[in-house]
């Protein structure tokens, strides 16, 4: 099976499973799981934050991040297409009574700062209190420029907002920009990281921030059911991933660029290619036929008018060549 639906489909490698098998465990609710503690220390070190907290999912990490920043009746400014606005079932509003203020992202994935500034509500009893700016990096594969992050950081300092980065794919940005995580994370108060996408673990996300904030987050995590016990087996996968699966993300980016070129050579219109994502236009009348053609040949991706293909550690260049061959055959049948 060649699966390009998402980088969430990556499976733990034999070496990762071996690391999980040998993990020392304790009870993380009592804070004595040594492997979870080691992963949190490592995430704090890498991000340059004082503390970190391990979560089963990125959705829960983002929810707890918002709950720990905002009170009932506060609001966060967020991208119209951002995961923690659009794809998390409205959790902040449902469970936190936190109002989102979505704004449209620019073509480069940034939220224009003049638009953000205009969306900040004055201190007036008519309005929700604007508390937080939430950015997504990478956003649909797009890496937010460091210069932009610095300006966003500056704006939030002036306006007394907190700045959160949903960094589900932040290590793709790290590799693409050739910087350390700390060089990006210095421009945010808090940051979430997914271990279960391109980094290849079965589950797991991290929230990084200052000590007091992470203590608050720990209580919210318990409340929403995220306090896990012998979670060291999962944290071991995370530690393995941070050590072995970060630098190799470059391969995924190179593969995505290669795939984009090959699809263009077939005469297809590649609308965008950034980091590990390729977007290609498929004529509406071909959608069903292409989808069937590919799934009959054990190739999976979600075919739509603008089709997204995501490269990751379980698809190598040979698998991508197979996909290209099938697409060529489809066009020439
Ligand atoms: C995948 C993702 C998340 C978290 O997703 P989970 O499936 O809950 O781990 C959060 N933000 C972004 C941008 C994502 O792509």
UniProtKB/TrEMBL annotation:
Pfam families associated with the record: Beta_elim_lyase (PF01212)
- State its Enzyme Commission number(s): 4.1.2.48
Origin, by domain of life? Answer: Bacteria
Q: Which cofactor does it need?
A: pyridoxal 5'-phosphate
Which InterPro entries does the record associate with it? Answer: ArAA_b-elim_lyase/Thr_aldolase, Low_specificity_L-TA-like, PyrdxlP-dep_Trfase, PyrdxlP-dep_Trfase_major, PyrdxlP-dep_Trfase_small
Indicate the segments forming the Aromatic amino acid beta-eliminating lyase/threonine aldolase domain, all copies: 3-282
Q: Which GO terms describe its molecular function?
A: lyase activity
Keywords noted in UniProt: Lyase, Pyridoxal phosphate
Known SUPFAM superfamilies for this protein? PLP-dependent transferases
Stated family: Belongs to the threonine aldolase family.
Assembly and binders: Homotetramer.
Family annotation (PANTHER family): L-THREONINE ALDOLASE (PTHR48097:SF9), L-THREONINE ALDOLASE-RELATED (PTHR48097)
Q: Which NCBIfam families match?
A: GntG_guanitoxin, PRK10534.1
| Protein name in UniProt | Low-specificity L-threonine aldolase
Lineage of the organism: Bacteria, Pseudomonadati, Pseudomonadota, Gammaproteobacteria, Enterobacterales
């Amino acid at each position: 099976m060649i699966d390009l639906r998402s980088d969430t489909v990556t499976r733990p490698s034999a070496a990762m499973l071996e690391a999980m098998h040998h993990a020392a465990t304790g009870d993380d609710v009592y804070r004595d799981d040594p492997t979870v503690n080691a992963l949190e220390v490592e995430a704090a070190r890498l991000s340059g934050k004082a503390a970190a907290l391990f979560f089963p999912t990125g959705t829960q990490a983002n929810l707890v991040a918002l709950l720990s920043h905002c009170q009932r009746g506060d609001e966060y400014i967020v991208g119209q297409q951002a995961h923690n606005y659009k794809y998390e079932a409205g959790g902040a509003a449902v469970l936190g009574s936190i109002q989102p203020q979505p704004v449209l992202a620019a073509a480069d994935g940034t939220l224009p700062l003049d638009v953000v500034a205009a969306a900040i509500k004055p201190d007036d009893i008519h309005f929700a209190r604007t508390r937080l700016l939430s950015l997504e990096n990478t956003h649909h594969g797009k890496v937010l420029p460091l210069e932009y992050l610095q300006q966003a950081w500056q704006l939030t300092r002036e306006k007394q907002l907190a700045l959160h980065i949903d960094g589900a794919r932040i290590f793709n940005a790290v590799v693409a920009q050739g910087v350390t995580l700390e060089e990006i994370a210095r421009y945010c108060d808090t940051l979430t990281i997914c271990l279960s996408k391109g980094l290849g673990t079965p589950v797991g996300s991290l929230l990084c921030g200052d000590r007091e904030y992470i203590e608050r987050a720990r209580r919210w995590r318990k409340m929403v059911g995220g306090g896990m016990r012998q979670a060291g087996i999962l944290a071991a996968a995370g530690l393995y991933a941070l050590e072995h699966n970060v630098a190799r993300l470059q391969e995924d980016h190179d593969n995505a660029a290669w795939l984009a070129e090959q699809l263009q050579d077939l005469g297809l219109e590649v609308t965008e290619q950034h980091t590990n994502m390729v977007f290609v236009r498929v004529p509406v009348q071909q959608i069903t036929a292409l989808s069937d053609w590919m799934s009959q040949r054990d190739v999976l991706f979600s075919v739509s008018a603008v089709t997204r293909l995501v490269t990751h550690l379980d698809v190598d260049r040979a698998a991508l060549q197979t996909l290209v061959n099938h697409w060529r055959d489809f066009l020439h049948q």
